[in-house]
Amino acid sequence: MPKPDITAGDPCWIDLMTSDPERAKDFYTGLFGWTYETGDAEKYGGYIMAFKNGAPVAGMMKNEGDSGYPDMWTTYLRVEDINATADAAAAQSGQIFLPPMEVPEQGKMAMLGDAGGAAVGAWQFGGHTGFQLLADPGSPAWFELLTRDYDASVKFYQDVFGWNTDVMSDTPEFRYTTLGAGDDSKAGIMDAAGFLPEGVPSNWQIYFAVENADATIETARSLGGRVIQAAEDTPFGRMATLTDPTGSIFKIAQPMPQGN
Length: 260
What we know:
alpha+beta
């Protein structure tokens, strides 16, 4: 597969904040075949890079427990000017969870809250230019915001990240907007106000490509994962929602056979 074409506003990286990095590494190796490199403790805090077939696909870091945040996956969007992005987020009813900071030799990052309350990362490229594999088995395939405030969230990503959006569906049952259109779309925003459980905030979810969803589910169970939503066929493939052993939620997607 060619390297992903990541332009400004696109999802460019994902990482996992986990209370048990060693257990997480074992789980995702067993599930996706990942290998790892751990960064310098002083310079990068022991940040772990995950690779699939030699290509970087994700990161991991220790959740020390004092942040108040549960173990979770985070999606990062590429930006050209991290400071301008943070200023724009604040001006568009967003929040600054972590102000822009430099990661030595790698780039600049910030953690923001969007207008619907979901956490999203911003990343300005330096030496690290995001994941180098996309939509291959064992790599991220899709990025989706489930929001309680659909209209405000769509406007936020248009205004702050420059999204050129396309309305895929606008019925009371299914409201969905994408970054880009059709086969060229890069991410989606779903109106989830009607089904997010009470107490669960708006959030970004990550889909990982798999060759066989049902086999992946059985492997996840054997490694200590749980099934949140059983596999089901959709127009976009066979999908399921899982957690890893410490409770981080993620989705899997098996492409539909060609011709369907």
